Each structure stands twice: as structure tokens, then as C-alpha cells.
Amino acid sequence: MAMPSPYRYLQLADLIVNMIDNGALPPGKRLPSVRAFSEQHGISVFTALRAYRLLEDRGRLVSRPQSGFYVASARRHRLALPSVPRLKAKASTVSISGAVAGLLEHASNQALVPLGCTVPDASILQSKRLDLALARAARLHGDRHNIYCPPQGEPGLRQEIARRSMRVGHVMSPDDVLITSGCTEALLLALTAVADRGDTIAVESPTYFGLLHTLEMLGLKVIELPTDPVSGIDIDMLSRLLDAQSVAACVLSSGFSNPLGYAMPEANKLALLGLLTQRGVPLIEDDVYGDIHFGRERPKPFIALDGGENTLYCSSFSKCLAPGYRVGWIAAGRYSQRVLERKLAFSLCSPVLPQVALAEFLASGLYDTHLRRVRHAFQDNLVRMTRVIEDSFPPATKVSRPAGGFVLWLELPRPFDSRALFDQALEDGICFAPGDVFSANRHFRNCLRLSAASVWNERIESGVRRLGQLAAAQLAHQTPA
Q: Which residue intervals define the domain HTH gntR-type in the entry (predicted)?
């Protein structure tokens, strides 16, 4: 039976990819003609062509004039992966707030090419049905929802979040969930529940500058853990670090970290959890990008692997559905009471209407269809952006290969200076994130992060290409003749 439009072409594209991956369609194999493919699957020629073109854009198929579509040869990445940084395992204070404020001011400027902001484009999210649910709730029951809800959040939304947690292998009840104002408040609550001013927190490096800003505001020190762009932090190195000094907590991404986009192998996650449990160090898990995975299955978060015994789980809907709603959540396990007390002190409760609308949307079953479309869009954007980087940036550039999310991390040869490039790019109407804001000690000056959160178009492509030209010119000027 035919699957429903308008996502039929995506399902057919997945079918072709699966056949390529399992060897049923080897490299160089010619696919059925567009017309033959449409007849085989009972679809229109337009839908068949759309599936083929999608896979051509991703580099999985190649088209040959007057011949048809063929399975592409295994694509060899022209640029290497970023290096694992060499960092001293020493606690330090954070001083990054001024740089973060300046970056966010530029990132919100719609006149600039948006390569610096990780707020997904509304045109990609297409959350009209969610907005309609909010409008309907306000129209029909506005008085009922114009109140303070329980500090834990709306019961209906907590129930839907708990229900979805079973899909990633973690069973929890609605009472285990507390609704927050985005993942930022969830992280803030978690940090204040497990650490006091002056304590030391271990983080990935590079790591999200928003986390560093929060740590600075809380007066917490940081140890930066060198992070591999494929497998994440070195567990043995962390073990040696914990032998040498006191750490109040670790804050790690469970999948698709910002900015590297890696997914830690499950075996490494289990080893990490065992180590932290043995040492009595809580893990604060940031899973805000977890639903934006490019593989067949969503990676299991840490909380699903240890049952929440030593994990404070933080996430939100901001990166995949509704950034403007600012709805996140935390499942804090044995720290739940401490987190609740801090929620009451910091914000009392979260706005009701967005929670009601999200609960209705999740209950409708539309969220998974939405996620499939969003994941395809972000993956396509990253493929296109990587190709432009390969064509326009200096040949020695290194670039990440994210397994999910929508950001790329670029490393250029020293003495490249991403701060100088940032100033030049602003003059050309382009915004990106310079690398030094991803480190408490302002490392990574020769790196930068690009966001692929916007609809791919000529303006975005030209912006990336222009950045490559400016970077190449800077390096050429710095290299002795």
C-alpha cells in the first residue's frame, strides 16, 4: 500500500540508501529509469525524480545525461578530520561572557548571512501545526491556561516526554520530569544542584559557549577534556584526571555535540558511566541534539544506560521543533528534590500555553514525521556545506563529519586567526562563530564553527564560499614568500 504524501519520496530515498548500504546496489550500478521506478512503486514520475535528485545531492547517486542515475562510488572525503587538541588537565576560571554577548548580538542580525546561529530556520521546522495547537488552546481555554502551573510543569507534557523516553530504552514516569525554560535552564538547575561556587566541572573541549557562559556566571571552574571528533573524550585520560584532582561533575553531550557533532560509541558510554559511578562524580547529560540523528537509530543517551542512577538528563525542543517556545526538561534522578527547590527559587514555573500546545502535538503522532523531514533537511545542508568548504577553503582545512545535528567544526593551519576572519566577514555581511568562544581558556583561535540551520540557498552557499576565499587570502598573506 502506498505511503502518504508528501513524505513518500523520503521513504523511497531511504529504501535506496539501505539497498546501497547492504550491497544490493553496488557502486556503478544503474538504477531503473525514473519512469520505471515510478511504475514499480505506484508513484508519480515527479516523486520518483525527487527521490533520485535528493540522493544525487547527498552524493549517493550520480546522473549521466541520456543514460540515467547510477550508484556513486564510495566518496572519499577530501579534507581530514579536526585534530584532538592538546590541553593541560588543569582547572581554570572562565572569562568568556563579553565575547559571547558580542557573538549573539551579531548572530541575531538578520541582515547577515546566518552561519553563526544555531537557531533552526522556521522554514525548515515548518511548525505551523504546533502553532495552530497553541492558538486553539488560547482561544478555547485561554483563562484556564493563564495561570501558574505546578513547578514540575504541565502533567500532559511530562506524560508525553516520559512516554517518548521508552523509545530510547529508558523507563521513567511523568513525576521524574521537570519542565524548564529550554535546555539552558535545565543545565543551570543541574549544575547548581551538584556544585557550589568555586567547584570544578569537567567539560568536552571544544564545547558549546553557552555552557561556558553559564559556568562563568555560577563561579565554577573548568577542566577541558580533549575531545576526538569521532569518539569523544578519552576515558583513560579522565580516569587519571579524577585520580589527581576533585571534580564536582562532568557535563557531556550524549549525541552530536556542539560543535563537533560526534556520537560517542555505546561501549565508551558504558565505560564512562562505570568510571563516574565508581568515583562518585555525577554526570550532567546534554541531549539537546539527540533527535537529529542521521543513522537508522537514535543513539541511546547515558540515562538509558545507567537507569538514571548517576545522571541528570537535560534536553529541549529548541533544536528540532520550537526554538521560540523555550521548552526544555530535566530528569534529575536522586537530585530531583534539589532541582525542584532551585526551580522554585529561579523561575517558579514555566509558561503554560507552550507546554499545552507541545503536549497536544506530541500526542497527535505528528512529531516523528516532522523529525524525519527535519533530519533529512539538516543532513542535506551539511553535505552541501561540506562540498563548498572542500571547494573554497584552503586545502589544509580540516572539517568535522557530524553524525547528527547541524553544525560543522573547521580547523585551519596556524597562524590562521578566526577572530580576524570574523571581523572581515562582518564587513562582508557574514556571521559565523570563531573558535575561541568554545574554550574556557580561549583555545581554538585557528578554528571556527559554521551552522547549517538555515534553508540552503544561493545566499548561504555564497557566504560559505566567500569565507573560504577570505580564509585563503589570510593564510596566503601570513605565509612568508
A: 6-74
Residue 264 to residues 234, 252, 260, 318: CA-CA distances in angstroms? 10, 10, 11, 22
C-alpha cell at 470: 577570505
pLDDT digits (tens, 9 = 90+) for 125-175: 988 889 998 999 899 888 888 888 999 999 999 999 999 999 888 999 999
Residue 189: enclosing H or E segment and its boundaries?
A: helix 182-194
The H or E element that residue 341 is part of is: helix 336-346
Round to whole Å and give the CA distance between 146 and 138: 9
What one-character DSSP code corresponds to residue 230?
T
The grid coordinates of residue 259 equal 560543535
Q: pLDDT tens across 194-234, in order?
A: 999 999 999 999 999 999 999 999 999 999 999 999 999 99
Cell numbers placing 31: 538504477
Strand runs labelled E in 2-89: 61-64, 68-71
Count CA atoms closer than 13 A to 13's CA, side-chain side.
Answer: 23
Element (H, E) at 314: strand 311-316
Please give the DSSP secondary-structure letter assigned to residue 404: B
